[in-house]
Amino acid sequence: MARQLQAAAGHQHGAIDSLARQIREWEKGRHFPRDWASAYASAFAIPVEQLFAPDLDDVSPLTMLLQRPAITSPTTTAPRLGIDHVEALLARLYRFDDAFGGNELVSLIADQVNHATALLAEPTLPSVEQRLHAALAGLTQMAGWLSIDANQHSAASRHLAATVYAAHEADDTALAAHAMGYMSLHALYRDQPRRALSLADTAAALANGAATPRTRAVLHTRVARAHARLGEDDACRRQLDLSQAAYADREADGEPHWTTYVTDIEVTAQAGACYLDLQRPREAITTLTSAVELVESTAPDHVRDLAHYKTRLATAYLLDGDLEAAVSTAVEANSLAVQIGSARVGERFRELIDKMRPFDSPLVQHLVESISAE
Fold first, then answer.
1. I want to staple 216 with a disulfide (CB 3.0 to 4.6 A). Which of 246, 258, 307, 347 is the partner?
2. Would you call 261 helix, strand, or coil by DSSP?
3. Runs of H (alpha helix) within 77-211
4. Backbone torsion region of residue 171, taken as left when φ is above 0, otherwise alpha when ψ lies between -120 and 50, otherwise beta
5. CA-CA distance, 203 to 219, in Å (whole number)?
6. Is the distance from CB of 177 to CB of 158 less than 8 angstroms?
7. Pick from 68, 74, 51, 188: which is nearest to 116 by CA?
8. Are 36 and 22 in contact (CB under 8 A)?
9. Per-residue confidence of the chain (374 residues) as pLDDT tens digits?
10. Which Gene3D superfamilies does this entry report, sorted A to Z (predicted)?
11. Residue (of 231, 224, 296) closest to 267 by Cα position
């Protein structure tokens, strides 16, 4: 097929082996051939608009993001991006976020945010406008999270601020609070624990009585993370207890899509991160080991989370003085991290390697040197 495409394009693009890789990625729904769309259509003898028409039931989320919505003009009847499409795209993103890293998705979802924002300028019914604000809040929140994962700090701040505004316009206090929780986490990653605590406290107070159990649970973990970074052990543990209590009240129904990630894995992993920041390596090892086992047994496709948690676990082993376990776990973490595009996870792994450098151990130094040579 690669030769057919090259012939259809008049030999204007890359080599056969490169084309073959692109075809395989397209077949898996991981690549949209922007430059090759007409060549694909020619090779298959199928019109471009038919070959690449979005099917929300079958198309992978990454392909949906890459498929730029058609714009109505006097010469075409192709539908514009509508509220139904925005909501369907968002629902799929919530389910598939962990399959890809932020580096891969952040610019693509930002493009979709721009298209959805443009809809607000069009005349519409009040009920549709509220739905659009709610969907836009969800999209900008996802864009904010992916920007955090890609270490694009300015974009993260901009998207999450837009989420709070859109959630307010949609009369969704819980979503606004949840977005502020992401702002707190973002501040924590930027080594601003006092700001992180202020944001998390505000988010938790805003959500009190207005949010579902999973939302309250994750917001309590945001407060706990900030206390842990500040070395405030008792305050951190109180928040972890509140998180567990809120999570225990969860129900199968009634939770918004954006809390689907709040599972036993998330609650356990956040507690492990707290113990690590509190310099409690034994507790961190126990809790993070549980988180890793939960991912491996229930969500093995969540490669980004697994890489992140194993990086934390290796750090805990290092703090506890178990160098052999630290090195073996770090090797596992690195093999996972290179499979995804997450600048955040990559940064955490580099921090682990920096912590290893002072150790006068042949085992540790071999790992440090091999990673540095990559």
1. 246
2. coil
3. 83-96, 102-119, 126-149, 153-169, 173-189, 193-207
4. left
5. 7
6. no
7. 68
8. yes
9. 444 434 544 444 444 444 445 444 444 444 445 554 555 455 444 444 444 444 433 444 344 333 333 333 333 333 345 777 777 777 777 666 666 667 777 877 887 888 788 887 787 777 788 888 898 999 999 999 999 999 999 999 999 999 999 999 999 999 999 999 999 999 999 999 999 999 999 999 999 878 999 999 999 999 999 999 999 999 999 999 999 999 999 987 789 989 989 999 999 999 999 999 999 999 999 999 999 999 999 999 899 999 999 999 999 999 999 999 999 999 999 999 998 889 999 999 999 999 999 999 999 999 999 998 87
10. Tetratricopeptide repeat domain
11. 224
pTM of the model: 0.77
Domain residue spans of the chain: 1-53, 292-374
- Please say whether the dihedral angle defined by the alpha carbons of residues 122, 112, 44 and 56, taken in this order, is positive or negative: negative
Unique residue bearing structure tokens 């038919």: 50
Using DSSP, state whether 185 is helix, strand or coil: helix
- The position carrying tokens 């012939």 is 7
Count of CB atoms situated within 10 Å of the CB of 185: 23
Listed in sequence order, the residues at least 6 apart from 105 whose beta carbon sits closer than 8 Å to its beta carbon are: 62, 65, 146
**Cβ neighbours for 287, distance < 8 A, ≥ 6 positions apart:** 268, 269, 271, 272, 275
Question: What are residue 57's phi and psi, to 5 degrees?
Answer: -85, -25
Residue from 193, 219, 203, 359 nearest 278 by CA = 193
- Per DSSP, the residues of 72-89 read -BTTB-PPPP-HHHHHHH
Cα radius of gyration (the chain): 23
Long-range pairs of 67-76 with CB within 8 A, sequence gap ≥ 24: 67/32, 68/111, 69/115
| Beta-carbon count within 10 A of 243 CB | 26
b/e code 246-261 from CB counts within 10 Å (16+ = b): bbeebeeeebbebbeb
CB 197 within 8 A of CB 220: no
